[in-house]
Amino acid sequence: xxxxxxxxxxxxxxxxxxxxxxxxxxxxxxxxxxxxxxxxxxxxxxxxxxxxxxxxxxxxxxxxxxxxxxxxxxxxxxxxxxxxxxxxxxxxxxxxxxxxxxxxxxxxxxxxxxxxxxxxxxxxxxxxxxxxxxxxxxxxxxxxxxxxxxxxxxxxxxxxxxxxxxxxxxxxxxxxxxxxxxxxxxxxxxxxxxxxxxxxxxxxxxxxxxxxxxxxxxxxxxxxxxxxxxxxxxxxxxxxxxxxxxxxxxxxxxxxxxxxxxxxxxxxxxx
Amino acid sequence: xxxxxxxxxxxxxxxxxxxxxxxxxxxxxxxxxxxxxxxxxxxxxxxxxxx
Lengths: 271, 51
Fold this sequence. Notes:
The complex is a heterodimer. Chain A is built from 7 helices and 9 strands; from the N terminus they run βββαααββαβαβαβαβ. Chain A is of the alpha+beta class. In chain A, strands 1, 2, 3, 4 and 5 form a 5-stranded antiparallel β-sheet that branches. A 4-stranded antiparallel β-sheet of chain A has the order 7-8-6-9, with helices on one face. The termini of chain B are far apart. The longest helix of chain B has 21 residues, at 30-50. Chain B has helices at residues 6-15, 30-50. Chains A and B meet through strand 1, helix 2, helix 3, strand 5 and helix 4 of A and helix 1 and helix 2 of B.
């Protein structure tokens, strides 16, 4: 039983030698070839990258970051060498190079059409954050506790025993209005995100919406309403930036990052 | 070319890319991986906040 595997970083056409970059754990990179396709692989120790150890390591952020950064570095090296690259998912490991070649053979058509799709194009990401707005401006939430008198003196002649019920009802109505407002704000935010995405999609060759990132991960207090990935022809990078500027609006903060290898655009339909 | 923030990189390396299935050593569902990285990131952040 072999205790090593072939870790696949990416596939590309006629990749050539990647001498400036090394693989995981400083292992040398090699190419596994099928026709004009090359898979970029390196040998990994299954003591570290076997299924059971991998499950443990994936929960270790330091380990995960190290592996992800090396993976990214190799993908970028292949990307700048060829102009088109199909990155593989993190931790895709075959038992032997022959198994890698068998995969290339089987996926040949899908991989070549994916490479055609992304050739000469880069991925940009645009995120929209909703600027925080207070609930009910001008109508600060009172203590928010049920049963509080509503600060309105009862009408003369009103039966006193109605008062607690009215206060409770008023609280519930206020609470419901608040919830409705939040729900409406969420709907509005979604509409804003949809609109921004639609405009940017018009300036891109392909687009994908990734799930908005958790606030605890972004480090921003504003909620993310759009996490979009856009595949843009390298000749259209400037018009795309202008489209981002044009999509800006009040109460929404847009960030744009790139160019990146086309990570989000080489998923194969049937893998 | 800017370096990708780790969160963005993991979004892509765990949520996209060419996925193989079948006779390979490692094969995990994307849902697994996305949950794993979220759990790992959140745990680290929580630990940092606590420390």
